[in-house]
TrEMBL record:
An annotated Gene Ontology molecular function: alpha-galactosidase activity
Family: Belongs to the glycosyl hydrolase 27 family.
Catalytic activity: Hydrolysis of terminal, non-reducing alpha-D-galactose residues in alpha-D-galactosides, including galactose oligosaccharides, galactomannans and galactolipids
Protein source organism: Crepidotus variabilis
Compositional bias (Pro residues): 430-471
Signal peptide feature range: 1-25
Enzyme class, broadest EC rank: hydrolase
UniProt-recorded name of the protein: Alpha-galactosidase
One GO-annotated biological process of the protein: carbohydrate metabolic process
EC number: 3.2.1.22
Length: 493
C-alpha cells in the first residue's frame, strides 16, 4: 500500500481513536440520565416496612407537592422479602408485610403517578440476612421488571464467596438488566453500593447509573460533613462521561452521559439536624448532582423541613438537562485548598447552570464552622466566574436578587452549619456600577482567614484525586466488609 493509501486508511481510525473517550459509559436510556428523586424506606424505617406505610407515604408525597416537585421514585430497601427463595429459586415478598403482593404495590404507586424501586444485594445475603442475588441475577432482574419495578439498589454485603473482581461482580447485574431489556423493552435504573471499600469511582460509569461513594449516612452533621469531604475530591470523576457514537460527525459524537454519584440518601427530617443543617445537606446533595432520595416519615415532616426539600430552584440545578457536571470546590475556606478534612470540608463550591437558555454560575458556600462567620471570596478564584466582570447575585434561598458582585463577594454572619446558594449572572452593560462595599468590610480573602490553624492530623492528599480508601470515617466504623451493619431497634411506625 502506498504511503498515501496507508494514511487514508489509518488516519480516520486514528482520529476516531483520539476522539473516542477512554471508556464507554453504560447507557440504559433516559431513565439513567438525570439524578433520580424520590423516597427510600431505609433511613427512617429500616426493616419496619409494610404495604400501608408505602401507600401512606405515596399519598402524603402527592398531597404535599413532592410528586409534582419531581420526587417520582418510591423505593423499598432491605427486608421486603422472605428468608428463603421459593423451591424454584425465586425471591418471595414477605406476605405479612405486603399481603397484596408487590405487583399490586407497584400498580398502586403507578396509579398515583410514581415509579417503584426495589433492593437486593450482590452477595449471598442482603445486609439484613435475607437471600442475596449472587448467581441469581437474571432470575431476580426478570422478576423485578415483571413485578413493575424500575429502579434497583444493589448492596454489597456477604460477597465473600465471589472470588473475582468487584467490577465483575456488579457487572453481572448490568448484564442481567441488559438481557431483560432485550426481552421486555424495559430498562431499570441501576444503583449499587460501594461503601468506599473499592474503586468504583474508576469503573462504576461503565456498568451502572450510580454507585454510592461512601458509608451509610447518619442523621448527624458529622456524617454530612464527612461525606461532603469525600465528595469534594471526586467531582471530576463521577458525573459526566463521554461515549463515542461512530456513526455521527466526530464533534457530535462526543455525547455526554451522566453518572450521578450518590452521596447516600437524604436524612432531612431525621435525628436532631437543625434547619440550617437540613438546608446545607439538601443544597450540597442537590448541587453535587446526587440522587435525591428522601428517607423520612412524611406524616411527621415539619412544614419547614418540607419547604427545604421542595426548593424548586435548587431542584432545577440538580435536574439540569444541559449541565451535568456537579459543583466542585474552588476554595476550601477554613483549610488550605485540597485539604482532606472530614470535619471541615471545602466551603466554597461553583459550577454552571443553564436556565431559560442562559448559562449562569452557581455558587454554594457552607459554613462548616461551629460559629457564625462571614462569607468572602475573590471571584477570580472560581473557574466559573470572570474576575473582571460584574454579576447580579440571586439568592436561591431568599428567591431574590441580593446585590451585585465585582472582584469579590461578601455576605456577613452565615449561621453555623448553614448554607448560601447563589446564581451569579453577568450584569447587563447598562446596569449601574456595583456598589462599593463599606470600608469596614474585610478585604477579599485570597488566603485562609488569620484565625486558621491547621488541624493537627492534617496530611495532604498525594494528589487531587479520590481520597485514600483506607481513611476511616469520623463517625463510627463502616459496616465491616461482608458483615451486616447492626440495626438497633427499628423506629415504630
Ligand atoms: C446497608 C446500606 C443501607 C441499607 C442497608 C440495608 O449496607 O448501606 O443503605 O440498604 O444495608 O440492610
Amino acid at each position: 500500500m502506498s504511503t498515501f493509501g496507508l494514511l487514508k486508511t489509518v488516519l480516520p481510525l486514528a482520529v476516531v481513536a483520539l476522539l473516542a473517550p477512554s471508556a464507554v459509559a453504560w447507557n440504559n436510556g433516559d431513565i439513567g440520565k438525570l439524578p433520580p428523586m424520590g423516597f427510600n424506606t431505609w433511613n427512617r424505617f429500616q426493616c419496619n416496612i409494610n404495604e400501608q406505610l408505602i401507600h401512606d407515604t405515596a399519598q402524603q408525597m402527592k398531597d404535599k407537592g413532592f410528586l409534582d416537585a419531581g420526587y417520582k421514585f418510591i423505593n423499598l430497601d432491605d427486608c421486603w422479602l422472605e428468608k428463603n427463595r421459593s423451591a424454584d429459586g425465586h425471591l418471595v415478598s414477605d406476605a405479612k408485610k405486603f399481603p397484596s403482593g408487590l405487583k399490586n404495590l407497584t400498580q398502586y404507586l403507578k396509579g398515583l403517578g410514581f415509579k417503584a424501586g426495589i433492593y437486593e444485594d450482590q452477595g449471598t445475603l442482603t445486609c439484613a440476612n435475607y437471600p442475596g442475588s449472587l448467581d441469581h441475577e437474571l432470575t431476580d432482574a426478570r422478576d423485578f421488571v415483571d413485578w413493575g419495578f424500575e429502579y434497583a439498589k444493589i448492596d454489597n454485603c456477604w460477597h465473600e464467596p465471589w472470588k473475582g473482581t468487584d467490577q465483575d461482580r456488579f457487572k453481572r447485574w448490568t448484564d442481567a438488566l441488559t438481557q431483560v431489556h432485550q426481552e421486555t423493552g424495559v430498562w431499570m435504573y441501576y444503583s449499587f453500593v460501594e461503601w468506599q471499600s473499592f474503586d468504583a469511582y474508576v469503573w462504576g460509569k461503565d456498568i451502572a447509573n450510580t454507585y454510592r461513594m461512601y458509608d451509610d449516612i447518619q442523621p448527624e452533621w458529622s456524617s454530612i460533613a464527612t461525606i461532603l469531604n469525600n465528595a469534594s475530591f471526586i467531582g471530576d470523576r463521577t458525573n459526566f462521561w463521554a461515549r463515542s457514537d461512530l456513526g455521527m460527525h466526530p464533534f457530535n459524537a462526543l455525547k455526554i452521559v451522566r453518572l450521578p454519584s450518590p452521596l447516600d440518601m437524604l436524612e432531612n427530617g431525621n435525628g436532631q439536624l437543625t434547619l440550617a443543617e437540613q438546608r446545607s445537606h439538601f443544597t450540597a446533595w442537590a448541587l453535587a448532582k446526587s440522587p435525591l432520595l428522601i428517607g423520612t416519615d412524611f406524616s411527621k415532616l415539619s412544614a419547614e423541613s418540607a419547604e427545604i426539600l421542595l426548593n424548586k430552584e435548587i431542584i432545577a440545578i440538580n435536574q439540569d438537562n444541559v449541565i451535568g457536571e456537579p459543583l466542585k470546590p474552588f476554595f476550601w475556606g477554613k483549610n488550605p485548598d485540597k485539604t482532606w478534612d472530614p470535619k471541615y470540608p471545602a466551603q466554597y463550591w461553583s459550577g454552571y447552570h443553564v436556565k431559560d437558555g442562559k448559562q449562569h454560575t452557581v455558587i454554594m458556600y457552607i459554613n462548616v464552622n461551629e460559629q457564625p462567620v462571614h462569607l468572602n471570596f475573590t471571584l477570580s478564584r472560581s473557574p466559573h466566574l470572570n474576575g473582571d466582570k460584574t454579576y447580579d447575585v440571586y439568592d436561591l434561598w431568599k428567591h431574590e436578587i441580593v446585590g451585585q458582585a465585582k472582584g469579590f463577594y461578601f455576605a456577613d454572619n452565615i449561621d453555623t452549619h448553614d448554607v448560601r446558594a447563589y446564581l451569579f449572572s453577568e450584569a447587563a452593560p447598562s446596569a449601574p456600577p456595583s456598589s462599593t462595599p463599606p470600608t469596614s468590610y474585610p478585604p477579599p480573602s485570597s488566603t485562609p482567614p488569620p484565625s486558621y490553624t491547621p488541624p493537627p492530623s492534617y496530611t495532604p492528599p498525594s494528589s487531587y484525586g479520590p481520597p485514600p480508601l483506607s481513611t476511616p470515617p469520623s463517625y463510627g466504623a463502616p459496616p465491616s466488609y461482608g458483615q451486616p451493619p447492626s440495626y438497633g431497634a427499628p423506629p415504630s411506625y
